[in-house]
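Structure first, sequence second, as always.
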């Protein structure tokens, strides 16, 4: 894989040739996370860091940023000039942002803020899981888009007291909602098998349970549930049930995992959940980005990570502060590449 970076964060210019497993080390604020962020942005047209405007990633004083990535199977390029629309290409063809998610390289990021993912509102966990469904079930994305259009129209009518067409929108929601829920269920059980196998190799074995709450009662179908709740929705002014309320519940002995597990255990859990997803997609180019790998992880967790690392076959990027840690986790006879970044300047090294 080759990555070109121009005027991105604190990196003015770089062309990097990566291997399968790539270690990026350097001090805090040196630019390690910026490399991971550039790869993520190429595939999502947004950052995994909090920001108000994408122009914030443009190098201070520069008029634009440009990113390009070529895996050998696919080439993606993104350019953004200040206060102008972003431009995207896949295999040298211009595309729109909404088309990117279906054509981009499946990319997953694990950040140090693992408790945030498990403790915040359900949309974050829903998006985490839907990432896998989108890449496994090709009609999921279009079905979800049609459901969201129906949801938007129904909610607009409920909010404004215009309910003459409410029965029609309920039927639309039920049709598309049942379809996307079925696709989620099919993927969930495949993923559940994978993640349970991974957890069985860790100290978290038999402690964790997963449940995919579909967004309404399992006792009745969505159409009946929407009709049963119709009066309540009219009073509230919005649709209270449906797959837009889907949640991936993670518990330990019926308690939220985030309230029971240590931060190190939470990071190990998050690693296992993401690794299970990328393992399922092992038949194609997949990218896993791990920001600040060793933060919160103990020796047992690193031992598990090394066992998994020996089986990994797709692109992996790991940022680390301490160079010495690399010697303890990098495996011999593997396509490893090592990069040292200092104040936005990137140097490839040999270990």
């Amino acid at each position: 894989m080759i990555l070109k970076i121009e005027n991105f964060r604190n990196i003015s210019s770089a062309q990097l040739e990566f291997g399968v497993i790539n270690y990026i080390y350097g001090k805090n604020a040196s630019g390690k996370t910026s490399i991971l962020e550039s790869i993520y942005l190429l595939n999502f047209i947004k950052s995994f860091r909090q920001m108000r405007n994408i122009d914030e990633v443009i190098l201070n004083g520069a008029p634009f940023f440009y990113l390009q990535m070529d895996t050998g199977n696919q080439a993606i390029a993104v350019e953004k000039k200040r206060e102008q629309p972003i431009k995207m290409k896949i295999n040298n063809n211009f595309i729109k942002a909404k088309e990117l998610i279906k054509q981009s390289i499946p990319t997953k990021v694990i950040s140090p803020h693992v408790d945030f993912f498990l403790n915040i509102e359900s949309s974050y966990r829903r998006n985490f899981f839907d990432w896998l469904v989108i890449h496994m079930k090709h009609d999921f994305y279009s079905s979800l888009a049609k459901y969201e259009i129906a949801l938007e129209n129904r909610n607009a009518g409920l909010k404004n007291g215009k309910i003459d067409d409410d029965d029609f929108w309920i039927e639309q929601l039920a049709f598309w909602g049942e379809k996307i829920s079925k696709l989620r269920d099919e993927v969930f059980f495949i993923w559940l098998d994978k993640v349970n196998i991974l957890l069985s190799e860790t100290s978290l074995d038999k402690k964790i349970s997963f449940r995919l709450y579909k967004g309404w009662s399992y006792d009745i179908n969505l159409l009946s549930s929407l009709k049963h709740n119709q009066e309540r929705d009219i009073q509230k002014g919005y649709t209270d049930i449906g797959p837009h309320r889907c949640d991936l519940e993670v518990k330990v002995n019926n308690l939220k995992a985030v309230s029971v597990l240590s931060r190190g255990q939470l990071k190990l859990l998050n690693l296992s959940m993401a690794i299970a997803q990328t393992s399922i997609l092992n038949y194609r180019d997949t990218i896993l980005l791990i920001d600040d790998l060793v933060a919160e992880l103990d020796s047992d967790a690193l031992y598990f990570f090394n066992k998994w690392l020996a089986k990994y076959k797709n692109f992996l990027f790991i940022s680390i502060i301490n160079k010495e840690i690399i010697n303890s986790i990098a495996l011999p006879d593997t396509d490893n590449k090592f990069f040292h970044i200092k104040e936005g300047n990137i140097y490839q090294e040999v270990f």
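Margin note: The chain has a mean pLDDT of 91.
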